[in-house]
Amino acid sequence: MAKILIATDKPFAPVAVQGIREIVEKEGFELVLLEKYTEKAQLLDAVKNVDAIIIRSDIIDQEVLNAAKQLKIVVRAGAGYDNVDLDAATANNVCVMNTPGQNANAVAELVFGMLLYGIRGFFNGTAGIELKDKKLGILAYGHVGRNVARVGKGFGMDQYAYDAYASTVTIENDGVKALTSVEDLFKTCQIVSLHIPATAETKKSINFELMNSMPKGAIVVNTARKEVVDDEGLLKMFSERSDFKYFTDIQPGNHAELLAAYPDRYFATPKKMGAQTAEANINAGLAAANQIVDFLKNGNEQYKVNK
Ligand code: 3PG
Description:
By secondary structure, the chain is of the alpha/beta class. It has two domains: 3-100 and 277-298, NAD(P)-binding Rossmann-like Domain (Rossmann fold), CATH 3.40.50.720; 104-268, Rossmann fold (3-Layer(aba) Sandwich). It is 37% helix and 17% strand. It has twelve helices and twelve strands. It has helices at 14-26, 40-46, 62-67, 86-91, 104-119, 143-154, 168-172, 182-188, 208-212, 231-240, 255-261, 278-298; strands at 3-8, 30-35, 52-55, 73-76, 95-98, 135-139, 158-162, 177-178, 191-194, 219-222, 245-248, 266-268. The strands form two sheets. It has a seven-stranded parallel sheet, with helices on both faces. α1 links the parallel β1 and β2. α1 packs parallel to α12 (278-298). It is elongated and about 60 Å long. The structure holds 3-phosphoglyceric acid (3PG). 3-phosphoglyceric acid binds at residues 10, 56-57, 78-80, 103, 272, 274-276.
């Protein structure tokens, strides 16, 4: 009987775990649960005799893969898979998948939650500004970017996007203006929302120069990855531009310093929470379970992200 492990440092909503259990047990597979683990040793122990693992931002590195002798597939219930060592997985003959789009709406809604909170003085009662007619720049027009545009339209925002891979037609069909460079996006938009993955090319790519080219009242919202923003550039932006604001659910390396120095312009949630809704947990968790079943039973590799 195949064993499927849910290894989530940040647990799914119970209703999502129940849904995953039903899918797995219906197939005669066994579900094992490791939630809120605090030591890597617990993960290393839990993966020993499982065939499949469902994770979130949990780190699957060479050591974990080596400990998982029976492992055939890892599914990252979510979009970004920078937490999985893809080369090591390939070398160990393990298939890695993600569940694209399944938690995108949750992240997009948080973007606007953070924006509203931030532009209204963190709800301190002072006069803020409105989103209507403001230029919103969406950096990367994937599933999250597209959802941001959908919600932004409701706020009456003037929307722009840059995506190195999406076609102009895809973007402009949504009533969003497609720009041809990331520089143009930052130069044009007072508010920029980041939706790029953390890759060798994107890490630290949101630097001082780029942010400093933004119009007056510049705001950057980061619900993507902390690694894509250059910490030093961010600090410099705060010290040189008294109009600059930054809202995020992924604390940068210099979070404590920023919070102490700029509490009226910098905001970060205690934990990464873009995808932390029951709906997103259900969508991504159940998709992960279904993908595992389809892979183990039929060899379906549709969402495979490693070679
Ligand atoms: C993703 O890549 O899907 C999001 O960053 C969500 O991550 P999480 O599952 O750790 O909340």
